[in-house]
Amino acid sequence: MLKGLLYGEDGAAFSPTHTRKGDRLYRYYVSQTVLKHGAGKCPVARVPAAEIEAAIISQIRGMLRAPEVVVATWRAAQPECEGLAEDDVRKALAALDPLWAELFPAEQARVLHLLIERVDIGADGLKLRFRDRGLAQMVTEVGIITGKSRKAAT
After folding, report:
1. How far is CA 120 from CA 65, 66, 69, 128, in A?
2. Contact 114/35 with Cβ under 8 angstroms?
3. How far apart (Å, rounded) are the C-alpha atoms in residues 100 and 98?
């Protein structure tokens, strides 16, 4: 889900991987530094996939409720979506939260890649860098579904 988005303090990417123990599958992300130079070369060598995915989704859910994010998204989406009201944006962002669990994993990954530019993993936690136009693009797509017409490109 987060492939291509996770990076360590040293700038190295984290890659998804897994292992099996008996019938159980364990998913995690591992630093490229660890794969190339060993575990002692990186303060955060690997992270459990379910835990980091849940932490990032939780941060996104909190962000989607922030009034300043709603207003900024509305302003960014207005030029592309005719008749879009601020309340339309608020409803579109609020609708994502309950629908998240119903999305297929590939669609969840698409939404995350639309919203997030990069996640830096450090010993002190996570730092998310969001895409400037990600929320506006998502709202525009939702706006098309809810009957708003997208302005034609000139």
Report:
1. 23, 22, 21, 7
2. no
3. 6
- The listed range with the strongest mean pLDDT (10-24, 82-96, 103-117, 133-147) is 10-24
How far apart CA 93 and CA 17 sit, in angstroms, is 31
Q: What is the domain partition of the chain in residue ranges?
A: 6-150
- pLDDT of 144 reads 41
Q: How far is CA 67 from the centre of its chain?
A: 19
The DSSP call for residue 13 is: B
Q: Report the mean per-residue pLDDT for the chain.
A: 83
The three-class DSSP label of residue 101 is: helix
- Rounded Cα distance between 137 and 114, Å, is 8
Report the distance separating Cα 148 and Cα 40, nearest Å.
54
> What is the DSSP secondary structure assignment for residue 10, as one 8-state letter?
T
